[in-house]
Amino acid sequence: MRTSSSRRLSEILILGALVATLTAPLADMAFHLDPSPPIYENRTLATFPAATPGTPLARALVSGLPTWADDNFGFRRFLIRQNARLRMGLLGQSAHRSLILGRHGWLYFAGDETASLAQQVRRQRPLGFPYLQRWGDALVARQEWLQKRGAVYLLVVAPDKQSIHPEMLPGWLVPAATATGLDQLVWYGSIRPGLPFLDLRAALRPLSGAYPLFYALDSHWNEVGGLAAGIGTIEAASRLRPGIRPLTWDRVTVGWTDRTGGDLAWMTGVGDLLTERVPTVSYPELPGATETNLEPCEPCGEPANPLLPTMVYEQPGVPWRGVLFSDSFRVALVPALRPSFGRLVVVSPKQMPASHKTLAALVEKEHPHFVIEERVERWLRLPPELPPRR
């Protein structure tokens, strides 16, 4: 009798567990029970399908419901986090297809079909001479256009993480001995002197033995990397127009702190659990300096133009005006550039390179002495836009 009762109790418990497992996702979708933090995915999750002009509700449900269910499955965040912890902790594997797990916990952005990390490291996509000519023509055209308006132009190339810290790549991803796209552009500059571009690897590599210059858990350079890049940029600018002075190392203080997360860490789903020791920079105080957030960017065209908020940095007593077009590498770069300018306007296009229309609008409004365009190495397949021909 006891055996029968015990068996019945076991069956009830198993059935209850099965029902709870099957209904838990539905309960979470209805009542949002999952306490896990949001997962950084760099995209917008699918919304529940609805009828639109030309698409009846039935068709919208058939086409959109599977995607919505995938993105909103109950306890999805919890499951992603546990999968990431198991794969990274037990198997030493990346938990996201866009990540490559390097040595000592370093993460690298795997790229996409247009800018694959493996292709870059193995030198599988050379630029080719016709493409280098396009680059040269575009740089010269932009340089000449700006010179007529009293401005110096400089394109600075922010190196990819693996170009400064290849020693942290996984053992299976060995850099080839052939030239990278940036190496090819440097070579082309040697046979076509006067091209207004700066390879920032020369400014960063001498320091890479003393400091990590990129975050282990992020795709960007850290504060020391940004400082070295900023000093190198102003030094190059001063050779084009003497008088502007870079910040010097004796005016800053380098320290260390613990940093949690990073854009690559959050992609794993467990970014809040990943911490690294990083160098920090304390900059000198700039008396009277101000910063203003302009949103939307007034001189950049229609409100719908693809621009993020524009920042304007000012300090009295410094004569130089500059315009900086930069991607997200600007975060650590701008503090190193600010002391050299009385007015620095920073614009971050969502799509690089910046259009000539945007450039022309800013030059007309700001009358800068310097126009600096920062481009990350993996996007060298996109030359600057040529000015329109009259």
Number of domains: 2
Give the strand line-up of the largest sheet.
Answer: 4-3-11-9-10-8-7
Proportion of residues in extended strands: 15-25%
The secondary structure category is: alpha/beta
Order of helical and strand elements: HHHEEHHEHHEHHEHEEEEHEHE
Report the oligomer. Answer: single chain
| Helical amount | 25-40%
Distance between termini? Answer: 99 Å
Uncertain spans: none
Main β-sheet description: 7 strands, mixed
Rounded to the nearest angstrom, the radius of gyration is: 26 Å
The number of helical segments is 12
Shape label = elongated
State the total count of DSSP E strands.
11
What is this structure's SSE topology?
Blueprint: H1 2-31, H2 57-72, H3 76-91, E1 99-101, E2 107-109, H4 117-121, H5 129-147, E3 152-158, H6 161-164, H7 181-191, E4 197-199, H8 201-204, H9 223-240, E5 253-260, H10 263-267, E6 275-282, E7 290-294, E8 310-314, E9 321-325, H11 330-337, E10 343-347, H12 356-366, E11 370-376
Parallel strand pairs: 3-4, 3-11, 9-10, 9-11
Antiparallel strand pairs: 1-2, 5-6, 7-8, 8-10
Helix pairs in contact: 5-7, 9-11
